[in-house]
Amino acid sequence: MSWRKEQGRAERGYHHGNLKEALLQAALGLIAEKGAAGFTFADAARMAGVSPAAPYRHFRDRDELLSSIAQRGFEQFEAILTQAWDDGRPDTVTAFERVGKAYLAFAREEPAFYSAMFESGLPVDLNPTLLAASERAFAVIRAAAERLAALAPPGMPRPPALMMALHIWSMSHGVASLFARGDAARRKLPMSAEDLLEAEVLIYLRGLGFPTDRRSSGQQPEDTRTAGRPSGQPSGVPSGPWGTPK
Questions:
Q1: How many whole angstroms separate alpha carbon 174 and alpha carbon 203?
Q2: Which alpha helices (H) appear in the chain, and where do they start and end?
Q3: Is the pTM of this model over 0.85?
Q4: Minimal CA–CA distance to 198: which of 82, 99, 92, 108?
Q5: Which domains does the chain have, with CATH numbers?
C-alpha cells in the first residue's frame, strides 16, 4: 500500500471523527485473518492507516479494543437470538430449533466477532459492560431452556434450567467450532452443522424423557409464559461467556 493511500486513510480517520470505528473495523479484519490472539495494537493502527500512538485516543490497550469488539458481537448475538426465539412461537420446540440455527449462522457469518467473544481469553469478569452484554445474550438461551424444562412430563423431575442452558450451549458451541475449521484437518462430515445440532438436541431431550412432538409443546404452564422475555439478568446466570456460576 502506498504512502498516499495510508495518508488518505489516516486523514479520513481524524477529519471525519471515525477513528474509533476505523480501529474496530481494522481489528475485526485482523481477527478474521489471524485470530483474536494473532495481532497487536500496532497492527490495528497500521491497518487503520494511523500512527501507533493514535489508538490510545480511544482505547487503553489491545484488550480494551478487543473488549469493545466482543461487546458489539454479544449485542448483535443477543438481537439475533431474540428474534429467532420470538417468545417461543409458534411452539417451544420449533422456536428452539430456530435459536440453534441462528446460533450457528452467527458463528459462520460473523467469525471475527465470534472469535473475539469466545476465543480471545479476555478477563470478561473484570469488564462489567462486556459481562452484562454476554449475560443478556445467554439469557435468551436460558429463557428457551426454561420453556423446555416446563415440558417435562408430569411426575418427572424437572431439570434445572441453568443446567439445560449450559448443556445446550455446549452442544451449539461445539458444533459451531467444529464446522468453523476450514482446513484439511477437519474430518469431513456427512451432514450439515444444523442437522448435527438438531440431532444432538433431540437425543438430549429424549434422553431426559421430554416429548419432542411439536403438537405436544404448544401449551405452557402458567408460571413459564413470561420466561421468553430476557429483559433482565436472571438470577444464577453464569459469569463470563459462559463459565462457572457466580
A1: 16
A2: 3-15, 19-34, 41-48, 62-85, 92-109, 111-118, 128-149, 161-180, 193-207
A3: no
A4: 99
A5: 3-57 (no CATH), 66-224 (1.10.357.10)
| Of residues 152, 115, 108, 134, the one with CA closest to residue 34 | 115
Give me the half-sphere count of Cα atoms (radius 13 Å) on the Cβ side of residue 199.
7
How many CB atoms are located within 10 Å of the residue 216 CB? Answer: 14
Which tens digit of pLDDT belongs to each residue from 24-55?
999 999 999 999 998 999 999 999 999 999 99
Query: How many other C-beta atoms lie within 10 A of the C-beta of residue 15?
Result: 9
Report the Cα 140 to chain-centroid distance in Å. 11
Helix orientation angle between 92-109 and 111-118, rounded to the nearest 10 degrees: 100
Question: Which of these, 13, 3, 4, 1, lies nearest to 48 by C-alpha position?
Answer: 13
CA-CA distance, 218 to 198, in Å (whole number)? 19
Cβ pair 141, 58 in contact under 8 A: no
Name which of 14, 2, 9, 113 is nearest 68 in CA terms.
Answer: 113
Tens-place pLDDT, residues 115-170: 999 989 888 777 999 999 999 999 999 999 999 988 888 888 888 999 999 999 99
